[in-house]
Write a structure and sequence with these properties.
Layout lengths: L2 H9 L1 H7 L15 H14 L1 H14 L5 H11 L3 H9 L3 H23 L2 H4 L6 E4 L3 H13 L9 E3 L13 H13 L5 E4 L14 E5 L5 H8 L8 E5 L3 H25 L3 H22 L11 E5 L5 E4 L3 E4 L3 E4 L8 E12 L2 E9 L7 E8 L2 E6 L4 E5 L5 E3 L11 E2 L22
Helix pairs in contact: 2-4, 3-4, 5-6, 7-9, 11-12
Length: 439
């Protein structure tokens, strides 16, 4: 996450606090939140309510430093059904959420008048299989109540489909509940309308649905195609109902982009296959050149001398200054005293590869330890130990701090190339010291 994105999230925190109940997305945030933090947020909701819990959640979120947490937060919002909030944060455009809040308050004021002043037959003729898609869950419930309580519409028997985030400020629909709602709409001829949030945008196959109505809801061109595809019946139609000029312009842009996409696909399908493959190859080459030219920031090399201790018994093995890199990927120790620190046993699967002849395994010399440190090889004319960093603990000489590394590439110390001139005569004429009784 960039510094600007972090500032934006802090600036728009009031929008998030009003909308988000963090307890519904905590299960998707486990890679970034400790168990005690999750419990603290859940306790805050139980004692103070969802807004206080959201405040604590945002505070913890904005303090995270791990790479990828912001993308994880957006993915969690989408998976939990908060697609409106997801889109608002991704684009840093909260106008849509402001409008939805206005509609929710307006519906609360006008709902009593709907029953007496609006004739349903004027605005909603008899429908067979209709999917109403609306983002705000309070409006969904209001629409359902209005249809059920109006004698001229109650025969439609509307169903509801929402995400697992929340519906009535308490809990969202479970997967079984979602399945039941879909099954009822598919099989029950009396149920003619399904009112849904954006959870219905994709992945739903409703063969008899012949009308999709989007109320003040528009996404990108992909969402538009996916949502329109919910109507699977022959001759099905999709309508967007809105009085918002921005929404209208966005949908017009989607229609234009869809037309461009279809024309591009048609042209590509007419290409010669060899020409198409060559074009793709040229694009890949160009993309690689761009990536390579950007380069990667190299980490600062830690030139301080450190100790390597046996990962099991913590016996001193060598200093990082004693380590040399052989052909860029193997690490050996040139310190003469190191040969007293290990013992060897013939390798069960000796093997030759390149300039290397794998001959034996090396182990910590302490008889009560015998921890596996790596292998013993013949490299050209030299007998050298090749150690693996995961077998050792790296200790800072000055502070005593100890660190474990799984791979050499993770250990950013000064790597000195192997030089034959540094090798003592023992390395050229070494008799392997056996390990008695080692299995």
């Amino acid at each position: 996450m960039t510094a600007e994105q972090r500032r934006n999230l802090h600036a728009f925190r009031d929008y998030v606090r009003k909308i988000l109940d963090p307890t519904y997305i905590l299960s998707y945030m486990t890679p970034w939140f400790r168990d005690d933090v999750v419990q603290h947020i859940q306790a805050k909701k139980n004692n103070k309510g969802p807004m206080e819990a959201a405040s604590l959640f945002l505070q913890v979120l904005l303090e995270l430093q791990e790479e990828g947490w912001f993308r994880g937060f957006l993915d969690a919002l989408q998976q939990a059904g908060y697609s409106g909030l997801y889109e608002a944060i991704e684009s840093w455009d909260f106008q849509k959420l402001e409008k939805l809040e206005e509609y929710r308050l307006l519906l609360k004021r006008l709902q009593p008048e709907f029953k007496t002043t609006i004739n349903p037959e004027d605005i909603l003729p008899e429908i067979s299989g209709c999917l109403l898609n609306q983002e705000c869950e309070e409006i969904i419930q209001a629409l359902k109540n209005w249809i059920e309580e109006n004698p001229k519409l109650s025969f439609l028997k509307p169903g509801i489909l929402t995400g697992r985030g929340r519906t009535n400020q308490t809990m969202g629909m479970t997967l079984p509940a979602q399945k039941c709602a879909l099954d009822a709409f598919r099989t029950n001829r009396d149920s003619k309308i399904l009112i849904a949030t954006s959870v219905a945008d994709e992945g739903i196959d409703i063969a008899q649905c012949n009308l999709v109505i989007l109320y003040e809801y528009v996404g990108n061109v992909i969402k538009m195609i996916q949502t329109r595809g919910r109507g699977r019946a022959r001759g099905s139609k999709c309508f967007l109902l809105t009085s918002n000029a921005d929404v209208i312009e966005k949908e017009k842009l989607n229609i234009c982009q869809e037309k461009m996409m279809n024309e591009s696909i048609s042209r590509l399908q007419g290409w010669n296959e060899a020409v198409f493959k060559e074009k793709i190859r040229q694009i890949q080459i160009q993309e690689k050149l761009i990536r390579d030219s950007q380069g990667k920031v190299k980490p600062v090399v830690d030139k301080k001398n450190k100790k390597l201790l046996c990962g099991k018994c913590k016996t001193f093995a060598c200093y990082t200054a004693d380590i040399r890199v052989v052909e860029e990927c193997h690490f050996t120790v040139v310190r003469d005293a190191f040969r007293e620190c290990f013992v060897t046993k013939l390798h069960p699967r000796p093997k030759k590869f390149g300039s290397f002849d794998k001959k034996a395994k090396i182990f910590c010399a302490r008889k009560d330890c015998l921890h596996d440190w790596g292998i013993h090889m013949k490299y050209k004319t030299f007998e050298i130990p090749v150690i693996k960093i995961e077998s050792f603990v790296v200790e800072d000489v000055a502070t005593g701090a100890q660190t474990l590394y799984a791979k050499w590439k993770d250990f950013n110390f000064e790597k000195i190339p192997f030089d034959a001139a540094e090798m003592s005569p023992w390395a050229q004429d070494l008799n392997l010291q056996g390990v008695d009784g080692l299995e």
